[in-house]
Amino acid sequence: MKVLLADDDAERAGAVARILAADEGLTVMRLKLGESLADAVAALTPDVVLVDMARPDRDALDGIRKVAALNTRPVVLFVDEDDPAFMEEAIGAGVSSYNAIGMPPPDVKPILRAAVALFRRHQQAQDDLRQAELRLKERSVIDRAKTILIRQRKLSEPDAYKWLRKNAMSSARRIVDVAQDLIRDMEGNAG
Amino acid sequence: MTKPIRVGLLRLVDSAPVLLAEADGLFARLGIDVQISIEPSWSNIADKLTYGLLDAAVMLPPLALAACAGLRGPKARLVVPLSLSQGGNAIVGSLQAAASLMADHSPPAIRLLEWLQREHAKPRFAVVHAFSTHNLLLRYWLASGGADPDRDIETVVIPPENVVAALAAGTITGFCAGAPWGDVAERSNAGQIIIGTSVIWPFHPEKCLCFSEAWTEANPDLMQRLLRAVLQAQIRCDQPEEAGRIAALLADPNGLNLPRDASRAALPGGDGAECIRFHTREAWFPARAHAVWFLSQMRRWGWLDEAADIGGLAARVYRPDLLAPAVEQEGLYLAAGLPALEGAAMLPMPDADAFSPRDR
Hints:
The complex is a heterodimer.
Chain A: E1 2-6, H1 10-21, E2 27-30, H2 37-44, E3 48-52, H3 64-68, E4 76-77, H4 84-93, E5 95-99, H5 108-153, H6 157-170, H7 175-190
Parallel strand pairs in A: 1-2, 1-3
Antiparallel strand pairs in A: 3-5, 4-5
Helix pairs in contact in A: 1-5, 4-5, 5-6, 5-7, 6-7
Chain B: E1 5-9, H1 16-23, H2 26-29, E2 34-38, H3 42-50, E3 56-59, H4 61-69, E4 78-83, E5 90-93, H5 95-101, H6 112-118, E6 124-127, H7 133-144, E7 154-157, H8 163-169, E8 174-177, H9 181-187, E9 192-196, H10 197-200, E10 208-212, H11 213-218, H12 220-237, H13 243-251, H14 260-266, H15 288-300, H16 310-317, H17 320-329, H18 338-342
Parallel strand pairs in B: 1-2, 1-3, 6-7, 6-8
Antiparallel strand pairs in B: 3-10, 4-10, 5-8, 5-9
């Protein structure tokens, strides 16, 4: 069975390809950077296409037979009608799959399952990274606010933090939002 | 705290009503929390609506119908209670193609066959999606000039924001896409607008607001509030004096990031080839007659079975009844009067049988 993998994220695509290549029954092909999805499907005639849902050219696969009237085999979205939760999970993870043959091959679901798992892990890693960046940014905002309080109100560092925390609690807001307002006020006054 | 309503849209000028409703606080005023999701493709919108990852979305009517007819997988359960816009698309040709087709002041379709015969290679036209208003109107126009869109041209699908570059690079001969891309092509001298799609079908419906049927059944009250807020925004979007502000909103680099001048040209009162209409002439009304026209065209091209129940499908997907409470509450129309809009009030539509590819 020939699987075409269309994912511009080289690291993730590499991981998916490695997992799939462990199955001797599979030939894994990758979309070349800049190559159009429709062209690759026409040239490589894969049985299954795995696509990163963030690709804007995914629309080219929808109704491909209807648009082109080429001799391409019909490409249809792979859907497991008996398992809508799995479909939701796949879409949530950002991967979609097409069959280029009338019926989905019987052993296609494990392939998609493996891809979904990898996409999810990748998504999780990205989310963690974003969270970490956000926390760092928030900490620097709080530090700047503390510096202002230490300088202007002659507070000690623990007292500056307590001041922020007290204001956050009394106004039911997050400490970082209180800190942000304080900085904005100071910069507003300065400007 | 309830979950926000997840509404998907693409980077297009006709997404304006949803964006404006958010920016102007119309959603908040009606007590709903809307989370707008800018999606990369129509397929994403269709898939996410089908599998409940979006509750509603700005949508191509033919794609909503195709999804419900089972043309892109199993039959989806989607409903269209609101039409969002009319017009705004353009058929654009390379400078060379445009020069051949527009040699005098006669309608360009008249020169179509002559031009096709002279071309050595099959002209290649891009549309934004197979199941798009653009593709159906382009095919209708080609057929009206005696051409067979399946035989005489090649159709490719290219995301709207890439069509101008493809035309400039010569990989396509022309395209049919929504605003602002026709005007962008002219401004950058990559091509020339041959006709606006409103010439083919005056006041043709363009985008709709499509919902997951399961979500509307579970959240009828939230749906009414969402519809009311968007109806209010559609009125604002139709006012030329608001167009500058809306073009600026569409140009927000953290949002849709659309070219400001070209968007302004496509909004009411603009100087683009086609101006989008959001509210006047009952642009908001989801007429079943429109759904029937789209489905008849799909059948004409062999995408739907001859035996397909077009009327039944149109009635299941196009749901003006769901809009009735919202239009009445907004004081736009008496609910009892809505069905009358289906008939005499609608403008004539292109006749599906009037033109067929000539036998050559």
